[in-house]
Amino acid sequence: MITLKQYLYTVQVGRLGLLTDPTEEEKRIAGDHVAYMRKLTGDGIGIFGGAVKGIRDSRHLGLFVFQAKDDVTARKIVNNDPAVKTRLMRVCLYPYRIALWNTKAFQLETDQQHYLYHIQAIRPEQVADPTEWETEMTKQHFYYLKEQTEKGIFCIVGRTQTTDPSTFGMGVLRAVSDEEAWQISVNDPGVINPIMRLNVMPFGIGMFNEDWAIE
């Protein structure tokens, strides 16, 4: 049996006008892009995908988590995305690992919406060579997110498996307001102390694999 690896690719538009005034061709390609990710998810390759909401500038970000047998196969999957093929969107591919998962939290309750939780180490060297204090704070950070996931607040938590300054952690949580989402996020010990830089943005889930689970 082949052990599949996890990957994450992010996309950003190549032309900002696409977010506010797309051409008919751009609309078609963007639709094909979403359909491609949904097909991958239906085929059991894709795990989760979506994009930030309400942001129409350079901070706009889409992402897709999937699995493949190796780096070459992962790159082929990314390159076959219609938005990547046509260079409508700029792409970055990362090795990735989902650490926490709660299928129920993908569903929203009354007045709730999803938010993207994005963190990066303040000190770049921390990822490859953490101090004892940073190691302890990272453990507390994980335990906090694990508790929030078990409570049904976070639906997914993970991070890129790189050790350079590009390394980042990503999660998606549900809350009834921007204020609640921010409060949940800033209570993370890694943010309080602080060893991590935080960004929280409204997020729309486009697809997820209901049958997927952490092994």
Overview of this protein structure:
- This protein is an alpha+beta fold and 215 residues long.
- It has a single domain (5-208), classed as Alpha-Beta Plaits.
- It is 32% helix and 33% strand.
- The chain contains seven helices and eight strands.
- It has helices spanning 17-20, 24-42, 71-79, 82-85, 132-150, 178-186, 189-192; strands at 5-13, 46-52, 62-68, 89-101, 113-121, 154-160, 169-175, 196-208.
- The protein has an eight-stranded antiparallel beta barrel with strand order 1-3-2-8-5-7-6-4, surrounded by four helices.
- A hairpin with an 8-residue loop joins β6 and β7.
- The longest helix has 19 residues, at 24-42.
- The two termini are 14 Å apart.
Q: Secondary structure elements and their pairing?
A:
Layout: E1 5-13, H1 17-20, H2 24-42, E2 46-52, E3 62-68, H3 71-79, H4 82-85, E4 89-101, E5 113-121, H5 132-150, E6 154-160, E7 169-175, H6 178-186, H7 189-192, E8 196-208
Antiparallel strand pairs: 1-3, 1-4, 2-3, 2-8, 4-6, 5-7, 5-8, 6-7
Defining key terms:
Alpha-Beta Plaits, alpha+beta, 8 strands, 215 residues, 7 helices
